[in-house]
Model the fold of this input.
Amino acid sequence: MSIPIFKVDSFAAEPFTGNPAGVCLLSAAQPEAWMQNVAAEMNVAETAFLVPREGGYDLRWFTPTVEVDLCGHATLASAHVLWETGRLAAGDVARFHTKSGVLTCRRDAGGIVMDFPAETVSPAVPPPGLEEGLGVPFSYCGLNRMDYLVEVADEATVRRVEPDLRALMKYPVRGVIVTARAESSGIDFVSRFFAPAAGVDEDPVTGSAHCALAPYWGAKLGKREMLGFQASRRGGRVGVRLSGDRVELVGRAVTVLRGELAV
Done:
């Protein structure tokens, strides 16, 4: 049995930037343990597994160590692969059934537009040791169903964060978003995302984190459409548009590897 598999750089306009994702195209559902092993073998932040169904695809995401409920960059990569391989026509909408509901992707002049749920944070009392674990002070701490979000003083602080990853692993969340208002021209806000408990020490560009960042900064800046920059080593830009309880994430993707699983 051979199974098509791809590696795609998401939120990227050229190879070796943005966030790499695996995309595995299945003809039928496979056991969770098998998918987890494939994700560990791919060893990127998330690998997506797609199974055709009536009116779209079932989609699940695995890090090298756990399954996650929502992933932006691997969804972007999945839609990109479906169009690139001709499994979807250029004008078709990609429709995915996931643990976070139905997600759709479409193409426009700005790239691939993903329709995701807003993951609004609520103010939270910082858990003991979070500030020490991040190594920087913060002015706000919020929490949604997946992550903590903290706002720090400025863009330079975001860029210099070197957290104690072992300390961050003890919290019962997927990860921690660190963000600040941008000072770089043309960018509204910057962020970084750390998720060592999910097997991802630092995610290069996190679409799902922008589902929290968009409503947070939209309220602070009085904007419905913004551009975020995730200031990891690889880095990547994520366009966001607020629409009620939904967030549109906009980005591009580049395929860097095509192959087949032989197992």
Observations:
- The chain has a mean pLDDT of 96.
